[in-house]
Specification:
Number of strands: 4
Helix content: under 10%
Largest sheet: 2 strands, antiparallel
Number of helices: 1
Oligomer: single chain
Strand content: over 45%
Order of helices and strands: EEEEH
Shape: rod-shaped
Length: 62
């Protein structure tokens, strides 16, 4: 499963509860993108969540 290499965000497991209170398991997946980012001056391909991309924690390579 994909995991953000910056903030370590990964899949979470929880329960979905119906109106009659029957419980089934569900997964909450983060939006993880594979991007080319600049790390130590060199471009590198890494898996990053969109929140880290939007906040500017990762600089994309051109």
């Amino acid at each position: 499963m994909a995991k953000c290499e910056i903030c370590d965000k990964e899949v979470k497991f929880s329960m979905q509860v119906s109106h009659s209170h029957r419980r089934t398991s569900r997964t909450c997946r983060p939006n993880i993108q594979s991007v080319k980012a600049v790390v130590d001056g060199t471009p590198k391909k890494m898996n990053v969540c969109t929140r880290c991309l939007r906040s500017g924690k990762v600089q994309r390579a051109i």
